[in-house]
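thread from #wetlab-drylab

HS: before we spend reagent money on co-crystallization trials with 2-oxoglutaric acid, can we at least see a predicted complex? here's what I'd submit
DV: go for it
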Amino acid sequence: MSALFDLPPVAPDGFRYQADLITPDEERALVARLETQPFEPFLFRGYEGRRRVISFGLKYDFNGPGLVSVDPIPDWLLPVRDKAAAFAGLPGEAFAHVLINEYREGAPIGWHRDRPVFEKVVGVSLLAPTLMRFRRREGARFQRINVPVEPRSAYLLDGAARTDWEHSLPEAKAHRYSITFRNLRG
Ligand SMILES: O=C(O)CCC(=O)C(=O)O
């Protein structure tokens, strides 16, 4: 058998990646908007994370009610939402929920799977690059895959990448935003 077949997978099933979903000009314009937004610390059942977040359309409140309505998705987010939706093979309006994460230097996101109420997840990255880490239990151990994620790229979490694998990001080395879009599971 060729050594090719012994190589570990480069990404979990259901993960897709597209470099340069947005242009440097689009990234600059989005960052200028995000700098004016009232980000708040991420709260999870009494725990305060180091990343800051803001949601539009729908918000998942981990401290009680779950999914709640919030301010509608602003016009300036619609072009990137539509590009993210096209990448996922969905109409733009399917992405009723936007969660924007802001990571300053040192801020991580811990191991998690996104809430089952959501189906597909598309993340668009701005500013610093990062490494998306995936893990899946294999008996007593974890199978692990790390995927580099560059600024202006998009990733899709669907299928096994969404339901079987957990993901996390290491502490940010520099300022980064992710604009994440989710549709509701039918
Ligand atoms: O910042 C990212 O790209 C990851 C975001 C994430 O995992 C989440 O919002 O649940």
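DV: The first strand starts at residue 15 and ends at 18.
HS: ok that's useful, forwarding to the group
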